[in-house]
Design brief:
Elements lengths: L3 H24 L10 E2 L5 E3 L2 H11 L3 E6 L4 H10 L3 H7 L3 E6 L5 H10 L6 E5 L11 E2 L4 H12 L6
């Protein structure tokens, strides 16, 4: 027969176990179901985690396109509706690992990224090589239409890498 004190100990152990599982799921979210790739309506496979995208890029020796976007950013929405929905752009982006950082959220990943790469505003698109370094002079700040975007990829991204 359990004593009253034993019931409280069991409840405490159960609560601590639940708290451990919750903290574990946040720390290792890349390995759980929480950070699976997302297929956007524009037909581009967007990763939901920069760390995951960088690991894939390293394994496949590919460039990472990091799209910093927010719902309140009108030029970001134009990228979504005009540029990223273009079939030629979609085809060109199949050669890259794409990740979208949601700047509607205030979190440490976005803050750390902004500080590391000196992000001044949205929209910003940053191209990172498979070693994790930003490709020199490849950054996009502001809206580009599909033709301008494809020319930028050719002249500022692919011309500076061995892809």
């Amino acid at each position: 027969m359990l004593k009253i004190g034993s019931k409280y100990k069991m409840m405490l152990v159960a609560i601590l176990g639940i708290l451990f599982l919750i903290s574990f799921s946040f720390k290792f979210k890349d390995y759980l179901f929480l950070n699976k790739p997302q297929v956007n309506l524009d037909g581009i496979l967007w990763q939901s985690s920069l760390d995951l995208a960088l690991r894939i890029a390293t394994e496949q020796n590919k460039i990472v396109l990091v799209d910093l976007s927010a719902n309140w950013c009108e030029p970001c929405q134009r990228f979504e509706q005009v540029t990223f929905s273009n079939s030629e752009v979609q085809l060109a982006l199949k050669n890259l690992i794409t990740v979208r950082l949601d700047f509607n959220l205030v979190n440490s990943e976005n803050e750390d990224f902004s500080n590391k790469y000196n992000v001044l505003g949205l929209p910003t698109i940053i191209f990172i090589d498979s070693q994790g370094d930003e490709i020199t002079d490849s950054r996009i700040e502001g809206f580009l239409n599909p033709k301008e975007f494809l020319l930028h990829l050719k002249d500022k991204v692919y011309s500076k890498t061995r892809m």
